[in-house]
Write a structure and sequence with these properties.
The chain is of the alpha+beta class. The protein has ten helices and 32 strands.
């Protein structure tokens, strides 16, 4: 079936036919996955031996020919084989390509011809590339004017390097053909063409499932495949080991450096304090905003700088090694509420109550590069680590979600109640929103689906920050109006711990990104607790 016999021989031997299943799993599926895994690991003789002994092939000659055609850049041959593909479920003969349900052969042709077009441009065969664009791509993309315009603009590239940069493409001799094959293989039925590295994907899913089911996950090491995974509850952080009391008033915000070696805090007393996260000694005590409280701070991606923003209507950049001021931005008309860095480490974004500068991007010289909106004030914001999403929270009930690359507004969301903080997970998939009604909500940013809700803490009229944390970001943690810290299992929403922390209010929490057994909190009692 599906080209799975070897040299025409049946998988069942003449005398002793093996069971059609392996411990309840389809024997052919298991064997083909093993053959692929052995080949992936370089054990080609072993892979051939398993194929010979079992009678199962990894893929039919037609599928193998299609794979070779794509990797060799034989585009006419690849399209010829694709032309013979049939849809999944159709009756067929031979061992040809079978498309996965919902796959569109024309879309696959567009990808092949686009690769062909780019490779011709890379070789400076502009005339041939133009013919491909006009006679091969345009008929298939007649409704995709923006795509055709983007491809046409590449004809003006002056060099291969310029082409690669503008097309975000690494060339014929990079990984582009492998990437193309990977995309094409997802549209071909796995019954004839296994998805790439299938065993590795399955094993990763097993590990993720075991981590997801571990209520007290504190191990930064991936689970072993030799045994079922479980973490000892005694290793979970619940005990205060240090109280840091160098602030003279309410502490509003804390943040670990990305390497986990330092901690920064700020609040009502106008100071930003940088602490050593191992000795808990003060490294720098910076009088950041002499005329008002420090509302927020953010570490640069390389941990070399910190932005602070304050009620004095200024945002400032500081050198974290020396504690010295690098730059003060132009004065805002209202307090600056929030700040985050772009992944490039050369620009950053501020949020402000000043509607004229509500949501702006700046460079290190203090030049304003872009202003997203003047329709609302911004109370908090977040940028996804992959640089795709920018989320702004206004002073009412709305979230504003932008494509950070194109700077376009993707969508707006009315939460029906006022949010107090926003945060994005390290995998850039999930948005965590804390709200005044004492509920935190996990949202899939791309699909806008509400994934999970976390209850048990109390909101209020002031900013209460929640965060992701722990090994593999397995937990959600939040401060609370009643001074407690609540911790939930991220995927299940199960409450894990409720800890007395600060009185009368716990304002912010932050988990050490490199130590799953350490987090910090701060509150109106003027203390930072580890």
């Amino acid at each position: 079936m599906n080209g799975s016999t070897h040299n025409g021989k049946s998988a069942a031997h003449t005398i002793h036919a093996p069971s059609p299943t392996y411990l309840g799993h389809d024997r052919e599926e298991v064997t083909r996955i093993l053959i692929q895994a052995l080949a992936d690991m370089g054990y080609h003789s072993a892979a051939e031996s398993v194929s010979t002994d079992s009678g199962y092939e990894l893929e039919s000659p037609t599928v193998a020919a299609f794979r070779t055609a794509v990797l060799d850049g034989s585009w006419a041959r690849a399209e010829e084989l694709l032309a013979g593909a049939v849809n999944s479920g159709e009756r067929r003969s031979g061992n040809g390509l079978v498309l996965a349900p919902g796959a569109d052969a024309n879309t696959m042709k567009v990808w092949i011809r686009q690769q062909k077009f780019l490779e011709l441009l890379e070789r400076r065969e502009t005339a041939r590339a133009l013919i491909v664009l006009r006679t091969e791509l345009t008929p298939l993309c007649s409704e995709q004017h923006q795509k055709l315009h983007a491809l046409s603009s590449l004809l003006m590239c002056q060099s291969a390097e310029d082409l690669k940069a503008k097309a975000d493409w690494d060339g014929a001799f990079g990984q582009s053909r492998h990437v193309l094959l990977s995309e094409l293989s997802r549209r071909i039925s796995p019954s004839v063409m296994l998805p790439e590295h299938r065993l590795a994907v399955l094993l990763e899913q097993v590990k993720e499932s075991q981590i997801g089911n571990c209520l007290f996950h504190t191990s930064s090491q991936p689970p072993s495949l030799y045994s079922d995974h479980i973490c000892d509850k005694s290793q979970f952080p619940t005990e205060v080991v240090f109280e840091l009391d160098k602030h003279s008033g309410e502490v509003w915000q804390i943040s670990f450096s990305h390497d986990g070696t330092r901690l920064a805090s700020c609040g009502i007393d106008q100071y930003v304090i940088i602490w050593d996260a191992s000795t808990f000694e003060v490294i720098h005590k910076i009088q950041a905003h002499e005329a008002g409280e420090v509302c927020n701070l953010a570490w640069s991606p390389d941990d070399a700088m910190i932005i602070s923003c304050g009620r004095d209507r200024f945002a400032k950049i500081w050198n974290t090694e020396t504690g010295l001021l690098i730059k003060t931005l132009e004065r805002f008309n209202e307090p600056v509420s929030s700040c985050v860095w772009a992944a490039d480490c050369r620009t950053f974004i501020t949020g402000s109550f000043d509607k004229d500068k509500s949501l702006c991007q700046w460079n290190l010289e203090g030049d304003r590069l872009y202003t997203w909106t003047k329709k609302h004030r911004t109370e908090d914001l977040a940028v996804s680590p992959d640089g795709h999403w920018l989320v702004a929270m206004d002073e009412r009930n709305w979230l504003h979600v932008y494509n950070f690359v194109t700077r376009e507004l993707e969508y707006e969301w009315d939460l029906k109640t006022r949010p107090t903080s926003v945060n994005i997970s390290q995998d850039s998939r999930f948005l965590l929103v804390n709200k005044v009604d004492g509920e935190a909500q996990l949202i899939d940013i791309a699909t806008r689906d509400a994934i999970q809700k976390y209850r048990g803490h109390s909101g209020g009229e002031y900013t209460i920050r929640s965060a992701f944390g722990g090994a593999n970001e397995s937990f959600v943690i939040s401060g609370s109006e009643d001074g407690q810290i609540s911790i939930w299992h991220k995927s299940t929403g199960i409450p894990i711990e409720k800890l007395d922390a600060h009185h009368p209010r716990c304002n912010s929490v932050c988990w050490n990104p490199t130590d799953p057994c350490m987090f910090a909190s701060c509150g109106d009692d003027g203390k930072v607790k580890m």
